[in-house]
Design goal:
This protein is mainly beta. It is built from 1 helix and 10 strands, in the order E-H-E-E-E-E-E-E-E-E-E. It has a 5-stranded mixed sheet, with no helix packed on it. A 3-stranded mixed sheet has the order 1-3-8, with no helix packed on it. A hairpin with an 8-residue loop joins strand 9 and strand 10. The chain starts with 12 loop residues before the first strand and ends with a strand.
Length: 109
């Protein structure tokens, strides 16, 4: 089996929404991941009582269907997100609840 709910596997990629993320954004704004491999994202919402999520998109303007996304939940909560293997390139992530301040890039190589 996989990791227990809320636990990040050793090869997981962590994205954190620290306290104040509505204003200051994610702790990580650029991540590099291996292309062509399934990916587990560990989303750590540390912002008490504030709902956040992480959604990964191919389109920079987020106009496409999300490749993968967690459900917005108020913190503190940790969620794991299974992402299918990505082709080499740049992808974009955001919080759907706070899409103007909580954004980042995910580079698959």
């Amino acid at each position: 089996g996989g990791p227990a709910p809320g636990e990040c596997p050793p090869d997981g990629v962590r994205i954190t929404a620290p306290a104040g993320a509505v204003t200051n954004g994610f702790a990580q704004t650029e991540l590099r991941v291996p292309a062509g491999e399934r990916l587990v994202v560990c989303f750590d919402n540390q912002d008490a009582g504030i709902p956040h999520n992480v959604a990964i998109h191919a389109a920079e303007d987020f106009s496409d269907q999300a490749i993968a996304a967690t459900t917005p939940e108020p913190g503190p909560v940790t969620q794991t997100l299974e992402v299918p293997a990505l082709d080499p390139g740049t992808y974009y992530f955001r919080c759907d609840v706070h899409p103007t301040t909580m954004t980042g890039t995910l580079v698959a190589r």
